[in-house]
Amino acid sequence: MERIYLDHAATTPVDPRVVEAMLPYFTANFGNPSSIYQEGRAAKKAIEESREKVAEILGAADTREIIFTGSGSEADNLAITGVAWAYRKKGNHIITSAIEHPAVLETCKELEKHGFAVTYLPVDEYGLVAPEAVRDAITDRTILVSLMHANNEVGTIQPIAEISKIVRAKGVLLHTDAVQTAGSIPLQADELGVDLLSLSAHKFYGPKGVGVLYAKKGTRLHRLIHGGAQEGRLRAGTENVAGIVGLAKALELAAAGLEETVPRLAELRDYFINKIFSRIDHVKLNGHPTRRLPGNINVSFEFVEGESILLNLDLEGIAASSGSACTSGALEPSHVLLAMGLPHETAHGSVRFTIGKDNTKEQLDYVLGVLEETIARLRAISPLYREQRGRKEK
Question: In CATH, what class is 4-9+259-393?
Fold first, then answer.
């Protein structure tokens, strides 16, 4: 059997239709968008048509609300740091959660070094932020709330629309990292009620190295990259024309396919979860049981290490993850799972499977067989598991 890829939350293969749309901008239409001659104007036209397409899909009122960036992480940085310095005279307090992506958490930690105060809200056992906790944390010095739309590790979807009503009533700006939700569930900035929203193309079958920050009209931002006047003077540097075209095409395809894709992925997700629990004991599902992304399965297998599971799966042609791709090299257990209250040893045994549009039930059945054998083999040499069995036999 060919290799089975179940790590779509880390990245996705570029859709061939996206590649086809991008190709001309590497060769024939290679002009610099800032040039005034024909080749430059053609490149500029491609960018603006892509901006219009993205604005329409995200429910933006104005194409100028769409800022192309080099990644979702850069979009997060521009949103948080950009607001922090632009509104510094109004206040210095930022609210986020303990389970955010490192692009948000590390940015907030950096701002703390410069005199900003940050509140890191706790989450419940499912990874949910309580809207009431947001309300209680807001002070007269609060300038921004940044909460992810859905968690990249456990797939829990936050009540952003509900939180936005609270934040708006307090006159505070709201940013959401929606990197994981674009292409997975319906996503419109106006319906969510956010002021800023981050995306990354490679999460929805687009190219790596290009992202989007939606910034609602009237939201002030301090630029991060100084130089030319590109992207409304917010991101200097010659634009990645091919990447921007690819992002817009990928988002267009993802939006058009949502009605078919979401129920199919949710069905495969639930099938996989049910089979795991029926065939393997001492397993815990991480994240909310229903308020979760349609393709996300995050489970902890007690008495074994997640890294050992992943290595064994890889040898059998299966790609999965232990959590965020950005922290997969870390020896510490997931900060998300620890924030949800999991003990260190349970968090260490976690594996994330994220299903994509090309995965099949036959593939999942193969993975289940390999997973069952792998867990049994690893537990057979686990002193913790032998100790557990010994207690049960007494």
Answer: alpha beta
